[in-house]
Design goal:
Blueprint lengths: L8 H9 L7 H14 L2 E5 L2 H11 L3 E5 L14 H9 L2 E4 L5 H9 L4 E4 L30 H5 L9 H18 L4 H25 L7 E4 L5 H6 L3 E4 L11 H14 L3 E4 L6 H10 L2 E4 L15 H16 L3
Length: 325
C-alpha cells in the first residue's frame, strides 16, 4: 500500500511542532506492510457509535482506531497531526457528517480509500430543541434557548434510534464487503447478528414505554429526538442540539411550569457534559435527576460497557422517570 501522500500545510506544521515531522517513507512503508501481513481492514472511526458498528460488523477482519478518546466530548473534537496522518493511511473512514465539523473537514481532505458517511445511510430529520403545545396553547417559541441554527439543522443523533442504527449498520456492512470482498460473507453474518440485537432492543423499548403515566421527559440537550419520535415520547431539552449552549432564564421558568403541567419527575443529564444546569432546574422545580446517556462515548461512568448495555440502562431510567406501568 503506498502511503506517500501529501497532507495539508497545517497538518505538516503541526506534525513538526509535535516532533512527528520525522515520519519517513521507510516507516510508512513498514506500517503498511504490517497491515498487509495481518490482512485486516484498517478502519478509522470518528467516535464511539461508529466504532461500535465497525467492531461488531468487522470482527477479527478489521483493525480499528477512534478519533474521539473515551471521555472526550465529540462535538468539540480537534484533529491532531497524528490523526491526520492516520486518516491519510486508512483503508476506510467511518464517520457521521454534521456531528463533528473538524472530522468532516479532515475526511474531505483525506485520501482514504473508502469514506463511509453514516448520515447518508439513513434519513436524518430536523429536531432542534423539541417543543410541544398543550390544549389552547401555541407551541413553545424562541424562548426555548435553541438557536435558529439548531432549529434548521438536521439532527445527527440518529444512533439513539435502534431502527435507524440498524439501517446504518446495513450500509456500513455493504461498504466493508466492497472494500474487502474476501471476507464479505463474514461481514454479512456479523451484520445479521448485530441487527438481531438491535431488533430485540427496539422491541424492549416499544414494550417498556408503551404504557406510562407521562410521555414527556427533560434532557440536558436535545440528543434524544429520534428516540422520542420512535417511541411516542416528547423530549424537552434545556439546551438545543449543541450541549454547550446556555438556556435563557425564560426557558428555565418555562420548564418549571412544564414539569407541573405534564407530571415530569426527572431532569436527565449526561456523563460527558456538565450536570450543573440540569441540577439547578431540578432544585428549582423540586425534581429528581438521573442519567440518560447519549452514548457519545464509553467511560468508567457509563452504565454499561457497550452500546446495548447502556441503551438498556437508558430504558430502565426512562421507565422510572415516566412512570411505566
Amino acid at each position: 500500500m503506498n502511503v506517500r501522500r501529501l497532507i495539508s500545510g497545517t497538518a505538516i506544521a503541526a506534525a513538526t511542532a509535535l516532533g512527528l515531522g520525522a515520519l519517513s517513507a521507510c516507516s510508512s512503508d513498514s506500517s503498511a506492510a504490517d497491515r498487509n501481513i495481518t490482512g485486516q481492514l484498517d478502519v478509522v472511526a470518528s467516535f464511539y457509535p461508529m466504532q461500535y458498528l465497525a467492531e461488531q460488523i468487522g470482527g477479527r477482519h478489521v483493525s480499528i482506531s477512534t478519533l474521539t478518546e473515551p471521555g472526550q466530548e465529540p462535538h468539540d473534537l480537534e484533529i491532531s497531526a497524528k490523526q491526520t496522518v492516520d486518516l491519510q493511511k486508512a483503508d476506510a473512514v467511518l464517520y457521521l457528517k454534521g456531528l463533528q465539523p473538524a472530522v468532516d473537514e479532515a475526511v474531505s481532505q483525506s485520501e482514504a480509500k473508502t469514506k463511509i458517511d453514516a448520515a447518508t445511510l439513513t434519513t436524518l430529520e430536523k429536531h432542534g430543541s423539541t417543543t410541544h403545545s398543550h390544549e389552547g396553547e401555541e407551541a413553545h417559541s424562541e424562548e426555548s434557548g435553541a438557536s435558529d441554527e439548531d432549529a434548521s439543522a438536521l439532527d445527527p443523533h440518529v444512533w439513539l434510534d435502534p431502527v435507524k442504527y440498524a439501517e446504518i449498520a446495513d450500509g456500513v456492512s455493504a461498504a466493508f464487503q466492497k472494500a474487502d470482498p474476501t471476507n464479505a460473507a463474514e461481514y454479512r453474518k456479523n451484520t445479521e447478528a448485530l441487527t438481531a440485537k438491535l431488533t430485540s432492543l427496539n422491541t424492549a423499548f416499544e414494550d417498556g414505554l408503551k404504557n406510562t403515566r407521562t410521555k414527556v421527559f427533560f434532557t440536558n440537550h436535545a440528543a434524544f429526538g429520534y428516540l422520542a419520535e420512535r417511541y411516542g415520547l416528547t423530549q424537552e431539552a434545556i439546551a438545543g442540539v449543541d450541549p454547550e449552549s446556555e438556556p435563557s432564564a425564560a426557558r428555565m421558568k418555562e420548564l418549571q411550569q412544564e414539569a407541573k403541567t405534564d407530571g415530569v419527575t426527572t431532569v436527565f443529564y449526561e456523563t460527558l457534559v456538565s450536570d450543573k444546569t440540569a441540577k439547578t432546574l431540578a432544585e428549582d422545580a423540586n425534581l429528581t435527576t438521573d442519567v440518560l446517556d447519549p452514548l457519545e462515548g464509553i467511560t468508567e461512568k457509563s452504565r454499561g460497557d457497550d452500546y446495548i448495555a447502556v441503551m438498556e440502562s437508558n430504558l430502565k431510567a426512562l421507565r422510572t422517570a415516566l412512570g411505566a406501568k
